[in-house]
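Lecture notes, unit on protein representations.

Consider one protein chain, 262 amino acids long.
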Amino acid sequence: MKITALLENTTERDDMQVEHGLSLYIETERHKILFDMGQSDLFAKNADTLGIDLSKVDIAILSHGHYDHGGGLQTFLSLNDKAPVYINRYAFEPHFNALDKYIGLDEGLRTTLVEQNRMHIVDESCILTPGLTLFSCNERTRSRDLGSFGLTVLDGNSHVPDDFRHEQYLLIEENDKKVLISGCSHKGIQNIMEWFAPDILVGGFHFMKLAPGEALDAAAKDLNKYSTRYFTGHCTGEEQFAYLKERMERLEYLSCGKTILL
């Protein structure tokens, strides 16, 4: 299995373009998967630089309904005319940040997906093919809650704290390994680890608003209990990553242009 970061907030390469967002290209034994598309067309430009043909992608997944993960979806649809796009049922709800700025998806994307017969709605779980399963985990207990960090969803005329019911995770089971792909882990990385305990986890931890200290210490302690290898970035935060790196045994940063071979 090969996982390449087409887009992330940072890069170590001069030929990559970056923005606040995430896009991963995943090659399994049977499939070519695009997981998230950043906020613009930069993921596609980087894919071209890396020699990755997005027209060959046969499964596309949107992890949740925020612009920095789904803003590039229209670009993908223009480059690929066949791959189904798996989206959580609640992804198109109106989402806002702590300053009440809209951070959700362009509603026009829904129309395009429906017109092209490309949108596949996911509820609590969905088996895509043998060895590939999407989970929303909305019915599972969250033993830890760091709150919504000011992120909200519009409920009628009122902004209410986002419970991130629009977020989903991809579990890949191949060659006796369990690999979990998470966009931002808004439901809590510690909760996600309790639910899945994968061999490898790839995704953001959503710690960028947490100051180094007690909460990150607790997270590092919890995550170290597993034998999991962690590859993180994006919403984890660079300062927070450096703090965790000193306290975790199997933590690596996945920046734009890097590839993981599993």
